[in-house]
Design brief:
There is one protein chain. This protein is of the alpha/beta class. The protein has a single domain (9-310), classed as Rossmann fold, CATH 3.40.50.720. It contains ten helices and 13 strands. The protein has helices at residues 18-29, 64-68, 83-86, 90-111, 145-164, 189-199, 218-228, 247-258, 282-288, 296-310, and strands at residues 9-13, 33-38, 52-55, 73-76, 115-121, 167-173, 175-177, 203-206, 212-213, 215-217, 236-239, 245-246, 264-267. It has a seven-stranded parallel sheet, with helices on both faces. A two-stranded parallel sheet has the order 7-10. A two-stranded parallel sheet has the order 8-13. Helix 4 runs parallel beside helix 5. The protein is globular and about 55 Å long. The two termini are 25 Å apart.
């Protein structure tokens, strides 16, 4: 794990979310001084004594100035929407995620914070790819508002880099999974499968289960986020496993590892679902010196061991 972040003053936007909780753990282990910005304090937060917390409103910008004061680098992990529902209200998607990020960038200017690492979406920004695996240079043709907004934020980051001396690293993260994942049943295929199997609930799959995605265990995402701290190129990097798996195969892997079963009901295909995508991660390997540790099998097995040890997802 990189030691470059040791002693740095780091702000994690969305530090109590799924990725945020894992990143904060990684930053603390690396010796960083961590501040979390989020809308509320979880009742069971384990960070109360280890991090500084600033509560505020990302959408309106309230609290951001206090959160940013004295910070060396910002990790922007906040998203108020998920891909599967973002088209239901694209105006809200823009007003919350895009406008919220512009509040962050303006406050960063005011507080003279010059460094940001942004988590974009490797699964939605490219649309249906023309080539597999998908390189960073592939055209951006998102099919859902979530992806459109992610692309817009990437463009604003690029603009601020060119005009205002910002340094921005964009990580286009594939489909992460692991402990503490939110939106079970809406986002997070692997936690959803396991959770429904554990509860004996019906598993619903949109379409015939042939859609292919790139699944990455959360510890590999955190190692990429920490590696990105050292990047000073304002670069864009795909972060995934580098291989694709269809839903039916993922379900079989989960069944085999857990020993659980589940009844599947197939729902109509959704036209905003990308048919096949997995990411070319050579650029991250070469520039960030980053390499995923877990395969789908080993990641699911490790995740299942943690679930059994801790008693929940």
């Amino acid at each position: 794990m990189t030691q470059a972040v040791k002693g740095a003053k780091v702000l994690v936007l969305g530090g109590f979310g799924f990725l945020g909780r894992h990143l904060v753990d990684g930053l603390l282990r690396s010796g960083a001084k961590v501040r979390v910005f989020d809308r509320s304090m979880p009742a069971n937060s384990q960070y109360a004594r280890d991090v500084e917390v600033v509560l505020g409103n990302f959408v309106t910008g309230d609290g951001l100035s206090d959160a940013l004061r004295g910070i060396d680098v910002v990790y922007h992990l906040i998203s108020t929407t998920v891909p599967s529902t973002s088209n239901d209200d694209p105006i809200a998607d823009v007003q919350s995620n895009l406008v919220g990020t512009l509040h962050v960038l303006r406050r960063m200017q005011a507080e003279n914070v010059k460094r940001i690492v942004y988590v974009s979406s490797g699964g939605t920004v490219y649309g249906n790819p023309m080539t597999l695996p998908v390189p960073e240079a592939h055209p951006l043709n998102p099919l859902c508002s979530y992806g459109v907004v992610k692309v817009a934020i990437e463009h604003y980051l690029s603009m601020y880099c060119q005009l205002y001396d910002l340094n921005a690293t964009v990580l286009r993260v594939a489909n992460p999974y692991g402990m503490h994942q939110h939106h079970i049943g809406v986002q997070g295929v692997i936690p959803t499968f396991i959770g429904k199997m554990m509860r004996g609930e019906l598993i619903e799959i949109w379409g015939d289960g042939s859609v292919v995605r790139d699944y990455i265990y959360v510890d590999d995402v955190v190692s990429a986020l920490l590696a990105a701290y050292e990047d000073r190129s304002s670069g864009t990097f795909n972060i995934g496993s580098g291989s694709g798996h269809c839903l039916i195969d993922v379900l079989e892997v989960v069944r085999r590892i857990t020993g659980l079963d589940g009844t599947v009901r197939h729902l109509p295909h959704r036209n905003f679902d990308v048919e096949q995508i997995y990411l070319d991660i050579r650029h991250a390997r070469e520039v960030l010196n980053w390499q995923p540790k877990y395969s789908l099998e080993s990641g699911c097995a490790h995740y299942w061991r943690l679930i059994k040890a801790k008693g929940d997802l």
